[in-house]
Amino acid sequence: MKTLLIILTFCLIGLTSLAQTGNTISGTVKDTQNTTLPGATVRLLKAADSTLVTGEVTDANGNFRFANLENNAYILAVSAMGQKDFTTAALTIDAGHPGIALPAIILLPAKSIELNEVTVKANRPLIEQEIDRTIVNVGSMIGSATSNTFDVLSKTPGVSVNANGEISLNGRGGVMVLIDGRSTYMSGADLAAYLKSLPGGVLDKIELLDNPPARYDAGGNAVIDIRLKKTRTGGLTGSVALGGSQGRYARSNDAVNLNYNLRKLNLFANLGYNYEKNYSEDDFSRRYYDETGVLKSRVVLRNDQQTAANGYNVNVGMDLNATPKTVLGTIINLNGSARNGDFRYESTQQNALNAPVSSGNGSTVSKENRRNTSINTNMLHKFNDKGRELAVDANYLNYRNLGRQDLENRLFNEDGNMEHRDVFRYLTPSEINIYTLKADYIHPLKNKARMEGGFKSSYVNNDFIFNHYNTGSGQPVIDNRRSNHFRYRENINAIYVSGEKRWKRFGMQLGLRLENTIAKGNQLGNDSVFAMRFTKNYTKLFPSIFLNYKLNDHNALVLMAVRRINRPNYQMLNPFVFYRDQYTYSAGNPHLTPQYQDRLELKYQHKNFLNMGLSYNRFTNGIFTTIQAQGDTFTSRPDNIARGYMVLLNTSVSGQITSWWYNSATLRLSRITMKGPLYTESLNYATNVARLELNNYFNLGNGWNAELGGYYASRDVNGQAQTSGMFRVNGGIRKKIWNGKGTLALNFEDLFHSWVYHNRSFSIRQSDYYQVNRTDTQRVGIALNYKFGKETFTRKRRHNNNASDDEKGRVE
Q1: pLDDT digits (tens, 9 = 90+) for 228-282
Q2: Half-sphere exposure of 648 (CA within 13 A, CB side)
Q3: What are the b/e assignments for 693-727, b being 16+ CB within 10 Å?
Q4: Cα-trace Rg, the chain
Q5: How does residue 14 score in pLDDT terms, banded at 50, 70 and 90?
Q6: What is the DSSP string of 771-808?
Q7: Which of 68, 354, 480, 509 could form a disulfide with 546 if both were Cys (CB 3.0 to 4.6 A apart)?
Q8: By C-alpha distance, which of 340, 350, 346, 348 is closest to 362?
Q9: pLDDT of residue 196
Q10: How far apart are the first and last CA of the chain?
């Protein structure tokens, strides 16, 4: 560890430059019948010693493209099922020849003999840094096969998940989460439940974008794009991943990935099942003061919750090469989960001398069934081989949730005699229907320039019912005073245009996005609750600027400025009050307005080794969860309470320390300030936050490899809550078996069970609280993975593909 820290310090202090070049080699692979060959493997080798640089699989039209190449001499090795291998002559990339567009590569038919599988030993690194994004290759995480997608995200460098399941990227909340470039349109508990139903075995990679360009929706402070496994290898290929882990309770995450390529037709499927049992333990201490600040009472609260869930995910699709220039595709996703919960609490109210005054206890038994369906159709038409193309994408999504909670609460006096008992039931059916249509057009211009433009239209219909029944008499009787029916409709229409131009050393991209939002909320009311309506209609511009300057062949600078919007989640706008325990309530806020963020960032990159970024983030109308004390109860609701800024320094180093040891390290330092009114109080603070991630990967030989990593988070502040520092240590070991077709892995998570939340409040009128939260984070797992079918070269480095055709979608 001492050596590692010395290396990290040297890298952070001693290195002062970074690189990204625009050099490219591109071409098309065909057979002797002049038919393009999708799924052909193209390896880029150094001409001097045939060392593998990277690999690529041709797309649906047989095209390949290697970008960001260093000046050097290369050769291409091309192979495809049923065809003879082909190797090019040397291709030289230099200042005079920065881009090489090859004529069509024609492969001759192979003889009818059994071909030996060729194995390339290049492994995909965990983290790859590009100018506009960070790519995390999930398959390089030993523990991914025993985890679900939510757990994988929580262990992804740069991503943080708090005790409430809220996801942030590099300190920025309100993240837009995409699946294969398309929005989930979920957030909060809905998004967490969906991600937990996706086994880690179906994941290929995760793309992290701090500053999305104009093509992306303006919603969300950052973008996380989760890519599922998919390949275009000829014939039938696939993999099976079986994973299980044990903490206090057992979990299982299993997946099957299939792909069948018939030249012009590519079929693929991801099938997943997961079982998760978990616990959550909360210890609260709340103190109440008089107007002079003298303690007058105290509440000690203990919450224990157990949940058990079964989830499934079925993702099937096809791509059809309708013509040599047009690809048609469709994807159908079915996702669901059944979750049972058992929540119990005990409370004691004390006077200023800590003597008991009263006590209470209660329980909530819950059942929840989620059923999600999405259907996508897409089209990609390439007008020519110079990059002129049109992509059209249409989606329908339906989310259904049937929830039931049976609650019982008892209140006792200081002598232990029961004074009050409530028995009631919640029925909470909800449904969301979403329709989207999107088109993107790219038009190349002369002299390394291009224009891009498009539109997107989305319509959301959200219907939420909350019925409260009193069941103390044995028969449920509806209580309209505590029941609610809320409908929310939202229509967003957007157009964008962007232009890009490259010179020898300098590159520029300018973008402008215009979005109009029309939102209507309706609390229907009943004979005891007043109806309430609201309408919002606003139009905003979102500019983006990206400037790229190449210092030399190994170093580059990027300056970027973007404006983003963070719209309230659908359920945040529901004004009704919901009950958790006798001292805790929550509610929505129909008066919420969007949060806006302006960001300026300077990035510096040296090869794929060192990345540094300094950003200034200013936000207005900040949306945070607030806590209001009313007597001895706390009510939480979202509100626009603050404006402020964050200055962030983000530094990451990755590279080979020895021939068998690869290391990546990331250090994030930020300064956060926040000011704003808060009920009868005010919010005014500044804090420093640090994050440190260290990951080590060891090649032990004979098919063995291991990993050991650690993550430290310092004290942090979110709204009225301050979280103390904490850390965790993860690791694992993996062995290749069955002639390299399978792997067997053993991993551990949170070795010291140190990932425990300690939260403290501030700026609550005449009261405060302290909370400790523990969950089932200390675990050991085992996973078995098996790949089948002809995969010559296709397992190798596909990460050079930036998947820019699929950069779509938003989440609120």
Answers
A1: 876 655 678 888 999 999 999 999 999 999 988 887 888 999 999 999 999 999 9
A2: 25
A3: bbbbbbbeeeeebbbbbbbbbbebbbbbbbbeebe
A4: 28
A5: very low
A6: EEEEES--EEEEEEEEEES--TTTTS--TT---GGG--
A7: 509
A8: 346
A9: 79
A10: 41
> Tokens 């048609």 identify what position?
328
* pTM tops 0.85: no
* CB-based contact 15:8 (threshold 8 Å): no
What is the arithmetic mean of pLDDT over 749-768? Answer: 91
Query: Which residue is associated with the tokens 């029944």?
Result: 469
**Own/partner pairs, 597-600, CB within 8 angstroms, 24+ separation:** 597/172, 597/221, 597/563, 597/564, 597/565, 597/566, 598/561, 598/562, 598/563, 599/210, 599/211, 599/560, 599/561, 599/562, 599/563, 599/564, 600/559, 600/560, 600/561
Give the mean pLDDT of 617-644.
88
Q: Are 792 and 740 in contact (CB under 8 A)?
A: no
Q: What share of the chain is helix, strand, coil (3-state, %, to 5)?
A: 5, 65, 30
Instruction: Return the amino acid letter for 782.
Output: I
Which residues, 6 or more positions from 565, have their beta carbon under 8 angstroms from its beta carbon?
A: 218, 219, 515, 540, 542, 594, 595, 596, 597
Mean pLDDT of the chain: 84
Pairwise CA distance, residues 755 & 230, whole Å? 34
State the Cα–Cα distance between residues 407 and 412, nearest whole angstrom: 17
Q: Compute the distance between CA of residue 769 and CA of residue 761 in angstroms, rounded to an integer.
A: 6
Identify the H or E element spanning 190.
Answer: helix 188-196
Alpha-helix runs per DSSP H in 259-351: none
Q: Are 389 and 382 in contact (CB under 8 A)?
A: yes
The Cα–Cα gap between 268 and 238 comes to 9
Comparing 139-143, 245-249, 626-630, 642-646, the range with the smallest average pLDDT is 139-143
Q: Where are any strands of DSSP class E within 414-483?
A: 418-427, 430-445, 449-470, 477-478
Q: Are 211 and 562 in contact (CB under 8 A)?
A: yes
Cα separation, 379 vs 320, whole angstroms: 10
Q: Are strands 633-658 and 584-587 parallel, antiparallel or unpaired?
A: parallel
Of the CA atoms within 13 Å of residue 725, those in its CB half-sphere come to 11
Residue with tokens 């704003």: 676
Of 211, 226, 214, the closest CA to residue 648 belongs to 211
Neighbouring CB atoms inside 10 A of 388's CB total 15
Residues 206 and 226: beta-carbon distance below 8 Å: yes
- pLDDT, tens digit, for every residue of 529-579? 888 898 999 999 999 999 999 898 788 899 999 999 988 888 788 877 877
CA-closest candidate to residue 729, choices 757, 706, 714, 708: 708
Q: What is the CATH number of domain 251-796?
A: 2.40.170
Backbone angles phi and psi of 196, in degrees to 5: -70, -20
Q: Which of 617, 609, 628 is nearest to 673 (CA)?
A: 617
Query: Contact, 704 vs 735, CB < 8 A?
Result: yes
In the block, tokens 């299980």 appear at: 244
Alpha carbon separation from 741 to 63, 244, 309, 527, 690 (Å, rounded)? 28, 20, 32, 66, 41
Least confident of 12-21, 47-56, 537-546, 714-723: 12-21
Report how far residue 155's alpha carbon sits from residue 159's, in angstroms, rounded to the nearest whole number.
7
The pLDDT tens digits of the residues spanning 466-481 come to 999 999 888 899 999 9
Determine the average pLDDT of the residues in 402-412.
94
What is the rounded CA–CA span in Å between residue 484 and residue 474? Answer: 23
Reference 221, options 160, 135, 148; nearest CA is 160
| pLDDT-above-70 percentage for the chain | 89
CB 78 within 8 A of CB 42: yes
